[in-house]
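task queued by scheduler; priority normal; single chain, no ligands, no partner chains; default sampling; output format set to structure tokens
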Amino acid sequence: MSDGRVFREAWIAGVTKHYPGEPKPGYVTPWEETPEWEREAAAAVYGQVRDFIEVSAGHATRLTREQKGRFVATCWTAQMFKHFENPKPGYVADWADLPGWQQETDADIFERIERIE
């Protein structure tokens, strides 16, 4: 499975688990229907998490869930600035401004990647 696809599937699993109520359709769009820019961003963030775990000799697994989620969120924000000249504010919101479900989902993504690596 491609790195981006693992990221996307972890995102969908997190949204399904943590989102209050019915998530927006775009939040759970399958990989095959995900726009190319989003596939590229997902693969890039997966790679950043993988590399972060590797350069820490695996000790990044000792981070708190919040630290793991913050890392994913920051990497995603950088991708939004790469792909959009003027991204929507919600795409580049600071960690403290993200809804709890998204914070939890970002932490889940990190932990999914660390189980693979």
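post-processing summary
- The mean pLDDT is 96.
- The CA atoms of residues 15 and 102 lie 7 Å apart.
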